[in-house]
Write a structure and sequence with these properties.
Length: 130
């Protein structure tokens, strides 16, 4: 027995079968963001008063660089998932919704790549690190 209307069955409309994965992705990234963000805040507070060269050397440390890259990846993915929910809920035109979701995805990819590139550039060109 189905709770779907006959018209809904004909159109093939219904659950996209991705809701659980989306929900879990948001929850997992939210949990990952907590320790990563705490590390980031503590790391940046510890650099108060340090010179530019000292901060660059600190970020060039492989452990710090990897944690920062993990933070960037997790935060941008979490941001994309959250904005997708907002777009799906509040953009009503189908074409506008698709374009907004595509723009959201490209925006988060650009932000993530630019941020990760900056961390890698510091890590590999500072001459310090290990």
């Amino acid at each position: 027995m189905s709770l779907r209307t006959p018209l809904s069955r004909v159109r093939g409309l219904g659950a996209a079968r991705s809701g659980t994965g989306h929900f879990m992705g948001q929850r997992l990234t939210a949990m990952a963001n907590i320790p990563l963000a705490i590390f980031f805040v503590i790391a940046m507070v510890s650099q108060i008063g340090a010179s530019h060269a000292e901060v660059v050397a600190f970020i060039a440390n492989p452990v710090v660089a990897i944690v920062f890259i993990l933070l960037i990846a997790s935060v941008t993915y979490h941001m994309r998932l959250g904005m997708q929910v907002v777009i799906e809920d509040y953009v009503h035109g189908e074409l506008a919704k698709i374009l907004a979701i595509v723009a959201n995805t490209f925006f988060t990819i650009v932000i993530a790549l630019a941020s990760i590139f900056a961390i890698l550039k510091i890590a590999f060109t500072s001459g310090a690190g290990m």
